[in-house]
Structures are given as C-alpha cells and as structure tokens.
Amino acid sequence: MDEGPSERSGARDRPADDLRADVRYFGSLLGTVLREQGGSTLLAAVEQARTRAIEERDAEGMALDGLLGLIGELDPELVPSVVRAFASYFHVINTLEQEHRLRSLRTRSLAAPDEPLRESIAEALARVPADVPAAETQALLADLCVTPTFTAHPTESRRRAVLELLARLGELVRLGDGRVLTREEQATREAGILEAITLLWQTEEVRPRRPTVLDEVQSVLSIAGPSLFAVTPALHAELGRAFTARYPNAHLKSARVLEVHSWVGGDRDGNPNVTPEVTRQTIARHRTLALTGYLRRVEHLAQILTVGSTRALITHELAVSLRRDADALPEIAAELERRATIEPYRQKLGFIAERLRRTQATAWDVPVAPPGIYANVEELVADLAVVRDSLRRSKAERLAGGGLADLLICARTFGFHFAALEIRQHSERHEQALGEMLAASGRVAAYSALNEAERMVLLGSLLIEGRPLPVTISRLSPASRETLETLGVVREIQERLGREACATYIVSMTHEPSDLLEVLVLAQQVGLYPPGANRAGLGLRLVPLFETVLELHRAAEIMGTLLADRNFRRNLSAWDDEQEIMLGYSDSSKDGGFVASSWQLYVAQTTLAELAHRLGIRFVIFQGRGGAIGRGGGPMQRAILAQPLGALGGRFKVTEQGEVVYARYANRDIARRHLEQMVGAVIRASLDPEAVAGQAPADPSWSDLMDRIAERGRSEYRGLVYDTPTLLQFFRESTPIDVLGQLTLASRPVSRGNRNSIDELRAIPWVFSWTQNRSNLPGWYGLGTALAEAAAEPGGEDRLREMYARWPFFRSLLDNAQISLGTATLEVTRLYASLVTDAAVRDEIMPRIEHEYELACRWVLAASGQTRLLERAPVLRSSIALRNPYVDPIHCVQVDLLRQWRADGSREDDPRLQTLLQTVNGIAAGLQTTG
C-alpha cells in the first residue's frame, strides 16, 4: 500500500513530493505490519482489490460488479482483515494529511512573515477601515465571544483507544518535521511508528459495549481540555498583537474571546441514561479538570519565579497576603520558609498550590467547606492578581505577562467548572411534569387539554403568585420526578460553583411560548425563579430550541409573545436582557430538506435580529450545527460570514459534535487554528465593510426568489421522503441503518421512538446512513428541481449567477451542496440499491434520486460558473478522487455481508455483524465523516 489519496498534497502550500514521500514511507511501514499480521495472502488480496477498484473507477460507465465479485470470492476468514487493512490505511493517511496541513500553514506564514495569515485574527483586524476609531473596535472586542459547545452526539465511530493511538502517531510524524534525524533517532522513530501501527491493527475498533454517559464526559474532557488550556491564552495574545498592529497608539483592554460550554452529561432529551446523579458526577469531573490544570501551572510557576527579596521589593498587598496565608496554613508556612526563605513569590505560589490541592480533595457538594480551600474562582484570581501586580511594580512586567498572565486568562475563562454545563430537555417532559403537579395540587385536572391562550393565563397567574405548588414530589411519576430533581441539581451546582457553572436550560422542540413558561413554573418549585428569590445570583437562563421548518418560521412570533410577558421579562432581566435562542440545523434539514432548512434558518435569524433591535434587547443565536452538510456542517468561517445582517453582534455560539470534537480539538495546533478562524470571522462579520455588505441580499428581489427556491426544494424533498410510502423500505434496505443500530457509538438511542418511522428517527443516523451508501441525499436533495425552476424564470440563469457572485449566503448554500454532490458516488448507491428486495420499489426511488442529482449538479455548475464540481477546490476534488478506490472495496464488503446477514435473519450473534460494524468505521475513516 504505497500510493494513495495523499498524492493530492497541499499543492498551493508546499511541493507535493514532501507529502507523497511521507505517504510512501508510512505506507511501506503499514505494509510491513500487514505482512507480519496476515502474511503475503492478505497483502495480495488487498492489492488485488485496490487495483480492481482503480480499474473500475477509470472504466467507461463505472460499475462495481467485478469488484463485488472479487470480494465475494475471498476466503470469508480473510474478509475482516481486508476491511481492517483499508481502514488502517485511512487512519494513517488521515493523520499524515492533518500534520501536513499544519506544516503548510507554517510554511505560508514563514514565506510572508510581514503578511497576516489568511483567515486569521490579524487578517480580520487588518481589514478594519482606517477611519474606524480604536474605541469603536475596542468596544466590539470587549464584547466579543466565541462559544464552542461540546455534545456527545453519536457521530464518532472510533474508540477512544484508537483516537489515542492516532494522536501518538501524529506526534511521531511531527518528530521528523523540519529536522534531520541521526541514524539512531530515525531508528527509534521508525520503531515507534511500527509499534503504533501494530497496536492500531490489534486494537478492536468497534466498541465492545455502548459507552456510558460518564465515558462520554471523560472522552470530551480528555480530548478538549489540554488543548483549550493551551490555546486560550494564545488566542488572547494573538488578539492583543493584532490590535496593536492595527492601532499602534492604543492599548487593548481585557476581552473575553472564548467561553466553553458542554451538553455532555446534561443533555437528557431522549437519553434516559442522563440522570440527576450523572449530572452531579459530570460537574465533579469538570471541576477536577479545571483545578488540576491550575495546580499544574501554579506548581510550574513556583519552580521558576525565583525572584529574591534581596533583588526586588514586593508590594504591601503581597506582604499582607503572605502573613494571612501563614496564619491560615502554619505548617505549610514553615515548609515554605525553609525551602524559599528569600523568595516571596515562590512562597505565595506555594500557598496557592496548597489551597488548590485542598480544594481538589474536597467534594464540590460538601455541605460545609473545610478551611484552607478556595470557595470560588474569584479567590484564586485575587491571589494570582496580587502576585501579578507586585511583579509589575518591581520592574518585572515580562514575568507578570508570561505564564502567570496565561494562568489568569484560563482562570477567568474556565472558572472552577471548565465548561459551563447546559441542560436540555424535551418540551413534552415539562408539560407532563407540570400537568401532574397541577392535578395533584387540585389546581387543574387536565392541563394538557388547555389551549395555548388558557395555558398562558394559568402559567402567568402561577408565576405572579410566586409560590411553589403544594405537591409532594414522591407522588409524581418517575419521569416527572427526574425533571424536578434535575432542576434541583442545577440549583445545587450554582450554590457551590457559581451561576455560570450551570444556568442554561434548553427546551427542545419548542412549539409555543408556554413551553418556556412551563419551565419557569417548575424552576419556581426549586427556587430558581423569581431571580434571586432565595439567594442572590441563582437563576435559570431559558433557551428555546426551534428545530423544524415551521417553528423556524414562527420563531420571531413566539419570541415576541414571550418578550411581552412580564414574568418572562422579569427572568430575562437577571441576564441583562440578553436572550439566547437555539436554531436546530439537523432536525430542520431532516424535516424540510437542505434548501428549505438553510433558507428558513437565515430568515429566522433576520426576523429575530429585527425583533431584538425593536425591543432593545440582545439575542444571541446558538447554532446547532453537525459535522455533515446535511446537518449544518461545512467550512466554519464561510458559515459565519454568510450569516444575515445583525445576527451575530460579536457573538458566535455553535455545537461541536461527535467526530468533530477530535478532529478540531485533539491537536492543539489545529484547535488554535479552528478557534482563530472563528474569532477572525466574527470580527470580520462585525467590522469589515465588505463582509457586512454581504450579509443582506444586494437586490431585494433575491429574497423573494429564495422563498420560491426554498419552497420548491421543500416540496421536492418531502415529496420523496415523507409522501412516498415506499421510501422507508428503500431507505431501510439500501442503507446500513440496521447495522448502525448495533453500533455502540454513544449512550443515546438512535431513535426517539419507533425506528420504523422516519419522523422518530434521529437526524444523525438518518444522515449517517445516506453517507454510508454514498448518496449524501440529505445534503442536496431538492436543490436541483428548485434551481431548475428558478432558472426557467425570465432572466433566471443570470440572476442565479449574480446571486452566487454577490451574496455570501447563496454562495455558501451552493458551495456546501457541492461538497455533498462531489463526495457522492451514485454508482455506489446503485450497488446498495440492489439490496432492495422489491424491484418495483428500487425502480421507483432510484431514478428519482439520479434525476435530482443530475439536476443539482447541472444548476450548481451553471450558477457558480464552473465546468465541474469543486473546480475551485482542487485539493478536495483530488483527495476525493484518489480516496475513492480505497473506499470502494469496503463498500463492496458491506453490501455483500448485508445481503448475507439479512438473508439469515439479521441476528445479533451472527459473526458477520462484527465485520459489518468494521465496514461502517472503515467507510467513515475513508470519507472522514459519519453524520
């Protein structure tokens, strides 16, 4: 396996020979391991499959019958190893490509050291016009905030053990980057690579059991924690340098830049495994991560800040602080006096380290805190600030601005909770709990029978009364008890760790204003409403989640009603009149199709921005994006710049889901680049006139046309997906959805209810399944018909081309569709369609998919002025073309085994199921996406 997709190289960044050499070298080492593990028979089978796949891809009228026949003739005992060989190859190549992308960035930076890197914070600030005063830019930056929000959505098909091996492999790649190794160093590196590949081969890729929620919590913290601790100060430093370069005579005041949030351990919508006790344990792990990070850095500073009292004076504040510490911790004081007699900074940092250790050893929910611990992060920040201020006044500004300043930034960013834990629950659960409580209290016998107006009157009166309902919680159903107990845990977290540790409560499937007021009534039961009723600072930040096309259309109407309600506004006042609103990309796309979803999300943000401006409040839009195009994925900076006018306002909050968490945060250099791109894009969207001008259509008629395009796309999509009865059979038989149900990706079930219903199926397995059969249908279906009809209008083709050239939203829509269309291979989809047992169903559905695909390709190319898909993205296009022959054999194995497994009853104890699960992972690795 000496050649492959890496021949695409970063052609614009450095010679292709560099990456190609690494591919050949690592490919040869993989071949060595394959020979050791499977002998020459395995190598021959892999090479034969690869060669046949290339031949069939190159043939006129591509067909995979020959490759499928070859796979069918393989020794069944050899098939799992063939799948593993191709999957291992992709793991290795993906790691190499990631490292070479970083090398390419470094090369570009070194080639033009005086020019800001493209899509960087420096470039964004350099675009600010000369007539924009420093104070105006400062005001924007002071309010700037990017909020990545981690979720455990089940799209990471690789085990944590595999991810750790790939991270180790990446370190070995970097070891040989830019330096000549001695013979001994090269031998050591090669031995390490062979060891990592051998472990990769012998490590089971498929999880032996479904992970628990706490497994998911630990996985996200382990992946993202180290990178974010390292990257956050670097982002602040880059922002400071860029501001100084743009305004040499101004000084940047403190800016927040980054907040980190997480749903993992708090998202209970459809996941019965997320219990109040799990949430309690989750916040404990968050706290441990934060305290461990601070302690490690304080101990390091205590080793290096060896400033002596004989060389520099200390401030009175530091002297007083040291005396206070000595009184509180006399045994530690004696030890520090012995070890650091004339080193006051080391002494102070020694006291800080001891207090952190004691805090770490004390449970977060202990009723009475023991002496000597930090009650909150503000106490830690105050201690660190005393050290910083003393250094500044003693001519040691550089020491104050190094690791100590970085630690202060981390403490202010992460608190004692690292990531703010968010709670999400389905609106029906609140209705159920409140209905039971009202019935038990004798207030209302059948709350669910009330219409919306009656509910609003009742809820308003309950909130005005301000008294909890006289209900014994033990009389409620288990589900309703869990809902109230969760709110109790939120209060407990806020009392111990501060309101910022856990305050956001997301109501999924928000249909009416009452869906949020119901939560306020429940919050009243545990003292979280009215704001500060029992203790200053407690409260609940209510966030509606609009997920379907209809609710997106009604978002401004629903929010207008809520903001006219005095109880809701009373709660909002505790949050400085800042209302967060979440928009769901995945479910809206599954509901109405890619085109209608994208447009309705744009319109919703526009109408919400207008409403916020009219009412004098601030909306923060929380974007629930997935990794795949059909779930709102795609290049992040392009997505930010395509937002409508007024939608950002210096804030950007977005979900980071599944495989995206590892891809963007496991490597701290990639994490920094990703976050820098987001921050830079938010700055550009706020201050760059060119970017701001593109946030609204240049011609008002374009919006009317997009209304028609979206409606026609929705009609075509729903006509196939929801209005064609045979589509469900086609989907179930032409995709591996039944295998995905056996894949232990996450603690959450793949369906909210009946798996035989598309309505009940979650968006992730829906998209995942269409990705596996290479149709990528959710990422483009309906677009072709919609564009064709728009083009048929008078002057239609010219108008589409103008919209693509001058409107970032429309360009982003078509470019994202290009990625879905360009990575699709309908010849492979036809192979999967052969699994459909009813030929009439196959002959009804497959031609419709093919026809819509051809229309979409034709009109995307016409509007964008290209002759072939991804013409302006040659690196991606080449990568897809060169990867395809390595994915095709895995597709053929999957199709062959699906046919056999289903014919024999789809038994869970069938050994072929394990290989099928491996094919899912292998295809995901080859395509670098799941759902």
What does it look like?
The protein is mainly alpha-helical and 931 residues long. Among the domains are: 288-414, Phosphoenolpyruvate/pyruvate domain (de novo design (two linked rop proteins), Up-down Bundle); 423-657, TIM Barrel (Alpha-Beta Barrel), CATH 3.20.20. Helix content is 63%, strand content 5%. Strands 1, 2, 3, 4, 5, 6, 7, 8, 9 and 10 form a ten-stranded parallel sheet that branches. α11 (330-339) runs antiparallel to α12. The radius of gyration is 29 Å and the shape is globular. The chain starts with 15 loop residues before the first helix and ends with a helix.
Average predicted confidence as pLDDT: 89
SSE class: mainly alpha
- CATH topology (fold) name of one domain: TIM Barrel
Rg, rounded, reads: 29 Å
Overall spatial form: globular
Distance between the termini: 28 Å
Number of DSSP strands? 10
Helix content: 55-70%
